[in-house]
């Protein structure tokens, strides 16, 4: 197991529900990431936080709202999602962001399998 | 446009056999290339990371090669085991710290 945990592991929600995904890293890293992984598609980067500040937002719809209260925790708040948002949502962390090199390797959590009905 | 193409999309081999997965990229300027293994329902786990100057890197039965001139990488799995069944993802980092992910190769090892 990596030092990145995600809860819940599975989530089923209706289009009018509000839910949150949680990610926690125990590696002392400064950067955290949210990815979306849909079937038969490459991983899509959604958000990047570095030292608790959002540094990247890849044109993600506003129904996805990230929150990073401290460097160890990252949330993804979900509101009025669509069925096409059903996917595996992966959280990752790395020592730093913005510095190239092998020490910038990302460590992934196990993911939350989200189904929107 | 930065792209990472992997082939084949899926592969079935018998236990004990070797196989090679391919990754072609057009990312520039290149910083490093990583291979990840992703078991079903789990997050990706890093296998190897290679920089421009590295041609080969091994991690147990996994050996990655990199040809920066042709912008190709391969991941060779020796003496496959049932636990090798997974998706293998090639990821390229450019000098601007942007990651580009390949679509992955889904490998199934059968007894």
> How does the major sheet of chain A shape up?
7 strands, mixed
Sheet with most strands of chain B: 6 strands, mixed
Structural class of chain A: mainly beta
Mean of residue pLDDT values of chain B: 93
> By helix and strand content of chain B, what is the structural category?
mainly beta
Number of separate helices of chain A: 0
> What's the quaternary structure here?
heterodimer
Radius of gyration of chain B: 13 Å
The helix fraction of chain A, in percent, is under 10%
Form type of chain B: globular
Please state the CA-atom Rg of chain A, rounded to the nearest Å.
Answer: 14 Å
Can you give a write-up of this model?
The complex is a heterodimer of chains A (117) and B (111). Chain A has 117 residues and is mostly beta strands. Chain A contains no helices and eleven strands. In chain A, the strands form two sheets. In chain A, strands 2, 4, 5, 6, 9, 10 and 11 form a seven-stranded mixed β-sheet that branches. Chain A is globular, with a radius of gyration of 14 Å. The termini of chain A are far apart. Chain B is mostly beta strands and 111 residues long. Helices cover 0% and strands 59% of the residues of chain B. Chain B has no helices and eleven strands. Chain B is globular. Chain A binds chain B through residues 2, 4, 6, 40-45, 88, 90-92, 97-102, 104-111, 113, and chain B through 4, 31-32, 34, 36, 41-46, 49, 51, 89, 93, 95, 97, 99, 101-104.
């Amino acid at each position: 197991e990596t030092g990145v945990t995600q809860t819940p592991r599975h989530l089923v929600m209706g289009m009018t529900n509000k839910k949150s995904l949680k990610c926690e890293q125990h590696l002392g890293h400064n950067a955290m990431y949210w990815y979306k992984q849909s079937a038969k598609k490459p991983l899509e980067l959604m958000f990047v936080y570095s030292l608790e500040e959002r540094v990247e937002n890849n044109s993600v719809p506003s129904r996805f709202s990230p929150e990073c209260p401290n460097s160890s925790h990252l949330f993804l708040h979900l509101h009025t999602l669509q069925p096409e948002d059903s996917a595996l949502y992966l959280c990752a962390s790395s020592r730093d962001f913005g510095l190239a090199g092998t020490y910038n390797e990302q460590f992934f959590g196990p993911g939350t399998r989200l189904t929107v009905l | 446009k930065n792209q990472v193409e992997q082939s084949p999309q899926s592969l079935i081999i018998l236990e004990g056999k070797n196989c090679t997965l391919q990754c072609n990229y057009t990312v520039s300027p290149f910083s490093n290339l990583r291979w990840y293994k992703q078991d079903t329902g789990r997050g990706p786990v890093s296998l190897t990371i290679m920089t421009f100057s590295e041609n080969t890197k091994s991690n147990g039965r996994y050996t990655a090669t990199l040809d920066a001139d042709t912008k190709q990488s391969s991941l060779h799995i020796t003496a496959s085991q049932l636990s090798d069944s997974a998706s293998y993802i090639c990821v390229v980092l450019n000098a601007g710290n942007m990651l580009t992910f390949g679509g992955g190769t889904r490998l199934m090892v059968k007894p």
